[in-house]
Design goal:
With about 300 residues, this protein is mainly α. Helix content is about 65%, strand content about 10%. It has nine helices and three strands. Strands 1-3-2 form a three-stranded mixed β-sheet, with no helix packed on it. Helix 2 runs antiparallel to helix 3, helix 2 runs parallel beside helix 8 and helix 5 runs antiparallel to helix 6. The chain is elongated and about 110 Å long. It binds retinal. The site of retinal has 19 residues, from helix 4, helix 5, helix 6, helix 7 and helix 8. Belongs to the archaeal/bacterial/fungal opsin family. It is a multi-pass membrane protein. Keywords: Chromophore, Membrane, Photoreceptor protein, Receptor, Retinal protein, Sensory transduction, Transmembrane, Transmembrane helix.
Length: about 300
C-alpha cells in the first residue's frame, strides 16, 4: 500500500503522546535472561540419484512382469502357478516403485532433539529432523514377501501349516518394521525392530529347517536347486534388516543411499530370483515339483450332482 509522506507527517503530529514515566531513584530490577531458542529444522530427502534409481527400478519391474506373464502363458498348467506368483511379485513392486518415483507413498518422520537448560531448568527444542519414510515399500513387502515364500514353499513341497506360520510371521515382520520406522522414541523403535527380527527368525526356521527336511524326500535336482536358491534368498533377506538398521534406524546412511541399496536388493530378490526360479523350474522334468489338483485343474467335478441336468 502506498502512503503519501505529507499525510503520514500530519497523522503523526495529531497522535496523542503517552507521557513517559517519571524517573525514580530506585535501582532497576534485573530482568530474567531470555535465551532465544530457535530450533534448527533439517530435512533428509531424496535427490537426483534417488529419483533416477526409483525410475530405473520402475522400468525393470515393468519389463520383468511382462516377460513373466508371457512365459506363464506358454508353460503347461501344472507349472503355471510359479509363473503367476512371480509375475504378481514384480507387478506389486512395479506399482510401489511407480508410487515412490512420482512422490506417492512417502511420509515424513520427525525426530525432535531437546536440550536441557541449566539456567531455567527447561527442556527446549534444539533440532527438528524430518526424514522421508517410503511407506509404499512396506505395502509392497506385505504383499510380495509372502508370495516369494510361497514360491519357495511350493518348490520344497512344504506342508500347509508350515506355510501359514511362515506367511503370518512374514506379515508381522513387515508391519512391525513399519511401526519401527514411524516410532517416536529409541526404545519404541528398537523394540519393534527386535520383534521384527524374531519374526524373521521364525521364517528362516520354517524354510531352512522344515523346508529342507521336506525337500530331502524329492529328487536330486530339486534338492540341489532348493539349497542354492534358498541360500541366495537367506543372504539377500538378511541384508534388508542391516540396511534398515543403518538407514532408517541409526540414520548413518542418507535417503539416496537407502534407495540405492534397497533397489539393488529388490532387483536381486524379485526379477533375478524370478528368472532363476522359473527358467530352472521349466527345465526340470515332469517329475519335479509341479502343482496339481485345484491349482492346476480347478475344483473336481467328478461325482458331483449337477442340478438341472436331465441325465
Ligand atoms: C525390516 C526392518 C525390521 C527388521 C527386519 C526387516 C526385514 C525385512 C525383510 C524384507 C525383505 C524384503 C524383500 C523384498 C523383495 O523385494 C522390515 C527391514 C527383519 C527381510 C525380500
Amino acid at each position: 500500500m502506498y502512503l503519501d509522506q505529507d499525510f503520514v507527517v500530519e497523522l503523526l503530529s495529531k497522535t496523542t503522546h503517552v507521557p513517559l514515566p517519571e524517573p525514580t531513584s530506585a535501582k532497576p530490577t534485573p530482568l530474567p535472561t531470555v535465551v532465544p531458542t530457535v530450533p534448527r529444522v533439517t530435512f533428509e530427502t531424496l535427490h537426483d540419484t534417488g529419483k533416477r534409481t526409483l525410475w530405473v527400478v520402475v522400468v525393470v519391474m515393468a519389463l520383468s512382469s511382462l516377460a513373466f506373464y508371457v512365459q506363464a502363458a506358454r508353460v503347461p498348467v501344472q507349472k503355471r502357478l510359479f509363473h503367476v506368483l512371480t509375475s504378481f511379485i514384480t507387478t506389486f513392486a512395479f506399482l510401489s516403485y511407480f508410487a515412490m518415483a512420482t512422490g506417492d507413498g512417502i511420509g515424513f518422520h520427525q525426530t525432535i532433539i531437546r536440550e536441557h537448560l541449566k539456567e531455567t531448568g527447561q527442556h527446549v527444542v534444539k533440532h527438528v529432523i524430518n526424514r522421508q519414510v517410503f511407506w509404499a515399500r512396506y505395502v509392497d513387502w506385505t504383499l510380495t514377501t509372502p508370495l516369494l515364500l510361497l514360491d519357495l514353499s511350493l518348490l520344497a513341497g512344504l506342508n500347509g501349516a508350515s506355510i501359514l506360520v511362515a506367511v503370518v510371521a512374514d506379515v508381522i515382520m513387515v508391519l512391525t518394521g513399519l511401526f519401527a520406522a514411524f516410532s517416536n522414541t529409541d526404545g519404541q523403535k528398537w523394540g519393534w525392530y527386535a520383534i521384527a527380527c524374531i519374526a524373521y527368525l521364525v521364517i528362516v526356521y520354517q524354510l531352512a529347517q522344515n523346508g529342507r527336511r521336506t525337500v530331502a524326500t524329492k529328487d536330486n535336482k530339486t534338492r540341489a536347486f532348493y539349497s542354492s536358491i534358498g541360500a541366495f534368498t537367506l543372504l539377500l533377506w538378511t541384508l534388508y534388516p542391516i540396511i534398515w538398521g543403518v538407514a532408517d534406524g541409526a540414520r548413518i546412511v542418507g535417503v539416496d543411499g537407502e534407495i540405492v541399496a534397497y533397489a539393488v536388493l529388490d532387483i536381486l530378490a524379485k526379477p533375478v530370483f524370478g528368472f532363476w526360479l522359473l527358467t530352472t523350474h521349466d527345465k526340470m522334468s515332469q517329475t519335479t515339483p509341479t502343482v496339481d489338483g485345484f491349482w492346476a485343474s480347478g475344483a473336481p467335478t467328478e461325482g458331483t450332482l449337477r442340478v438341472g441336468d436331465d441325465d
